[in-house]
Amino acid sequence: MGSTATLSGVDTSRGAQLALLLLDGFESLTRQVIDELAERGHPAVTATHEFALRAIDQGADDAAALGRALGVSRQAAAKTIEALESLGYLRRLADPSDARRKRLVVTDRGYEMSRLGGAAYDALRERWAASIGWARLEGVEAALHDLAGRDTFPT
């Protein structure tokens, strides 16, 4: 029950298999949403871009704050900021309280991409529910919510 041997002789634990299954589910959903966004005029979007836009909209208004919100280095956050700016999803504005500082602000195009992405995720969720039933899907969501230790579950 603990692990299974593979053809290569490397043991794969059930826990590792679960992690891979969760990752596969995430990647499947995300890949389909990214394809949908590309078809709707938002090419080159990644899941990281969406996470970054959410963090910026919730107050991460510089590279250091964005890095903390995403759990990445300031340098990685700066690269994400550059990509988002080049795609037209955010702007850097002068901070009225500190002329040396630039604040990050999500653009209308960034909000549009986020809305379209959200709608695409919702449509995929409905397809999954049609495939396995709403009760099973909501059970999976509730279990993942509990296991992930989230304080709230968005409705």
Short key terms for the protein model shown above:
155 residues, two-stranded antiparallel sheet, two-stranded antiparallel ribbon
Query: Radius of gyration over alpha carbons?
Result: 19 Å
The low-confidence parts are none
Silhouette? globular
Percent range of helical residues = 55-70%
**Structure class:** alpha+beta
Strand content: 5-15%
Q: Helix count?
A: 6
Taken in chain order, the helices and strands follow as: EEHHHHEEHH
Sheet with the most strands, sense and barrel status? 2 strands, antiparallel
- Multimerization state: single chain
Q: Major sheet: order of its strands?
A: 1-2
Query: Mean pLDDT, as a whole number?
Result: 90
List how many beta strands DSSP finds: 4
3D architecture notes:
The protein has 155 residues and is of the alpha+beta class. Helices cover 63% and strands 14% of the residues. The chain is built from six helices and four strands, in the order ββααααββαα. It has helices spanning 14-39, 47-57, 63-70, 74-86, 108-132, 134-148; strands at 3-5, 11-13, 90-95, 98-106. The protein has a two-stranded antiparallel sheet with strand order 1-2. α2 (47-57) crosses α4. The protein starts with a strand and ends in a 7-residue tail after the last helix. The mean pLDDT is 90.
Question: Which helices and strands occur, and which strands form pairs?
Answer:
Layout: E1 3-5, E2 11-13, H1 14-39, H2 47-57, H3 63-70, H4 74-86, E3 90-95, E4 98-106, H5 108-132, H6 134-148
Antiparallel strand pairs: 1-2, 3-4
